[in-house]
Amino acid sequence: xxxxxEKIINASIKLFEKKGYSETTTIEIANLAGVAEVTLFRKFxxxxxxxxxxxxxxxxxxxxxxxxxxxxxxxxxxxxxxLLRNRIEIALKKKKLLRLIIKESFSDYLxxxxxxxxxxxxxxxxxxxxxxxYHNIKSNSEKNARxxxxxxxxxxxxxxxxxxxxxxxxxxxxxxxx
Amino acid sequence: xxxxxEKIINASIKLFEKKGYSETTTIEIANLAGVAEVTLFRKFxxxxxxxxxxxxxxxxxxxxxxxxxxxxxxxxxxxxxxLLRNRIEIALKKKKLLRLIIKESFSDYLxxxxxxxxxxxxxxxxxxxxxxxYHNIKSNSEKNARxxxxxxxxxxxxxxxxxxxxxxxxxxxxxxxx
Amino acid sequence: xxxxxEKIINASIKLFEKKGYSETTTIEIANLAGVAEVTLFRKFxxxxxxxxxxxxxxxxxxxxxxxxxxxxxxxxxxxxxxLLRNRIEIALKKKKLLRLIIKESFSDYLxxxxxxxxxxxxxxxxxxxxxxxYHNIKSNSEKNARxxxxxxxxxxxxxxxxxxxxxxxxxxxxxxxx
Amino acid sequence: xxxxxEKIINASIKLFEKKGYSETTTIEIANLAGVAEVTLFRKFxxxxxxxxxxxxxxxxxxxxxxxxxxxxxxxxxxxxxxLLRNRIEIALKKKKLLRLIIKESFSDYLxxxxxxxxxxxxxxxxxxxxxxxYHNIKSNSEKNARxxxxxxxxxxxxxxxxxxxxxxxxxxxxxxxx
DNA sequence: GATGAATGAGGGTTCATTCAT
DNA sequence: GATGAATGAACCCTCATTCAT
Lengths: 178, 178, 178, 178
What we know:
Chain A has helices spanning about 1-25, 25-35, 35-45, 45-60, 65-70, 75-95, 95-105, 115-135, 140-155, 165-175. By secondary structure, chain A is mainly α. Chain A folds into two domains: about 5-55, Homeodomain-like (Arc Repressor Mutant, subunit A, Orthogonal Bundle), CATH 1.10.10; about 60-175, no CATH class.
């Protein structure tokens, strides 16, 4: 049943987010999902495979290709405005998941395409590069991607809510980015 | 002997930095330190205690009180300049250690005073607060501390060297901070 | 369907011969047979039952009663000649199967009538006994059966081909048997 | 303690001989040895390693080099007489161990130098070769080694005692070997 | 007649830690 | 002060088998 797999994935992400990969045991996941431990291994070949599938499943909200196409055509200031807003919103929405990914990004068992750098930094850099190319302008995409990634990291890692001042924050960072 | 304890601490930090707390085993540490595994438990009551002592030992390079006293008296622009430069330099020097702390900051077993937020963010915020109070000016210390922490996070987490352009970076961030 | 059962039996013997009983898993057999694992348990009550049926099915080439009737009437030298040739040929043809039976003969789960001793040694001894009785001669059937069984064991267990010199071998062993 | 390792080895060989490698569990071995299961893994890196060490330990009664030096100088008939007697005696004494080795010789996990062919057949062949060379005579060492190995196999695999008639058996086989 | 879904029982192995010396 | 020896608890994972359809 598709249902079972989903139950396991949802239980697993909850625990992985809470305790990280190593500290989460397969039996805990099974218990939370309400299935036998074996069932978990029938649906996924190994714990690490479950981990990856879980991440991918809950990570699917990336910048979709169409959205990015629209954004890059904007003039630079608006481009960054939208890029920032979009990334910030996702970061806040997926806070726990991103925390997990950051934590596990230092480990060897996480495949490269699921590491923080790839998921966040490289995506931003790419968007900036495409934008620059489209408008035929020069831009230090590495620097700017790093600045934005730093902002996102601070939102995810440092406690406290900033929901009220997203607009402000964007304005501030535009000062550096432009 | 003091020597033995130090050997263990040095071996442990090397492994903790490389693989994190959970993935590092006590026997590995003992082997690298060149002592028996038991010895480790004679010197430290438990693995987690060794972990904490190790962190504290290698983390001792905090803003020393005297230095901060000097800095806060500077006028605001210079204060931030020096603060930024100092924090950036430490971040780059202690990259691996900070990575470790970030990684483990999401776990429950790390005491609060060793978590990233405390070690980096709160220290910066405090410095800003003292500076503001001294000069009797208003300042959003939370916001600025978050911005700086975000910068440091980006330096530690995202690969690539920025050593050449530290001056530039500082100038840029000053645009937001002031 | 008869077909399904046969597919399972053929797949199973292939794997059993290759890896032995314990090392072969039911899912492997099912995969090789191209059926679901459950189907295997519908056709056979348990793995061990499948094992036994498989053995019996592929073992059916025993000395048929008629053939033996003809042989025992021969004069002793010819009797042994034919007996040896027949047993050697079967041993070489069923090498893998015999190896499997030898291997599993040391286990408790194999029923007595499928063990090597029964299948090979006892059959030979019986043939010799019948022959002796028919001709009213004395003969140490145990000793001779053991010698022949030893020869067959050496052919099955020790690598190397002896196909060219079967005639020679028979002549040699006749020296002891007569 | 050396003692513990020996206890484990002795317990293990008893169980391995009785049930074979796969069917014997590490917890059984530990229980029989009177130690915790972990202890077993402290002394041996893995089950298979314990298995091999156990085999080697209990197998140490091979033809020692000096003995063989004496034997090969005998004239051919006496050489075979002594070789046969020696091998038969060992086979009878190490019946269970040889059975185990035969059983596991069909598996992949047994290293080549512990397989039946190597331990029994190749040793005999080598002795014959050395003898032939020494006396500058021709001899089909492969054939004769196979014959002797077959005899030993029959002694080990087929039930029944032949202790009384070892002399006889030797005389008989000499007919083929010479 | 055949199968997808699920599992209880147990497998080898690793972990941090304690005990006795 | 340091260690060799031993372990309880837990880990991931695999097995043959059953249930419901």
